[in-house]
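> example.struct
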């Protein structure tokens, strides 16, 4: 599985992570998926509703709004992103408990790293970044 995303969007997520610290930032990923190839074309930053600093919870209304905007663009919400203030850019126990949607892309920021995972049938699998030529 691969993920293509512009460098500017990667920097935006890391900036949001720094701004939200010591809480987690979160948002949704708009783009397209073809088989195991994900292309992120826009971010939809969301408020983190969680009062637990080690979790994130995207407001369902923001999710619906992002899906509506994506549909208008002919794209879809293909995943989500959030940060780990402890610097570990890996799925946490809370992430495993909270994940539900299959073939959903998860970008996790920790420190200066941003790692990509695809959740499917109870398992997070690491995905590789590919350089976006578009
Ligand atoms: Zn997490």
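> example.seq
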């Amino acid at each position: 599985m691969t993920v293509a995303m512009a460098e500017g969007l990667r920097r935006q997520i890391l900036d949001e992570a720094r701004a939200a610290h010591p809480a987690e930032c979160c948002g949704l990923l708009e783009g397209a998926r073809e088989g195991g190839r994900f292309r992120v074309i826009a971010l939809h930053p969301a408020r983190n509703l969680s009062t637990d600093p080690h979790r994130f919870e995207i407001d369902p209304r923001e999710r619906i709004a992002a899906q509506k905007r994506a549909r208008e663009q002919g794209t879809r919400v293909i995943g989500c992103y959030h940060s780990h203030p402890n610097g570990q850019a890996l799925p946490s126990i809370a992430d495993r408990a909270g994940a539900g949607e299959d073939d959903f892309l998860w970008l996790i920021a920790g420190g200066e790293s941003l790692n990509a995972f695809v959740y499917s049938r109870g398992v997070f699998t690491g995905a590789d970044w590919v350089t976006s030529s578009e």
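> remarks
The beta strands are 2-5, 26-34, 37-46, 76-83, 104-110, 113-120, 123-130.
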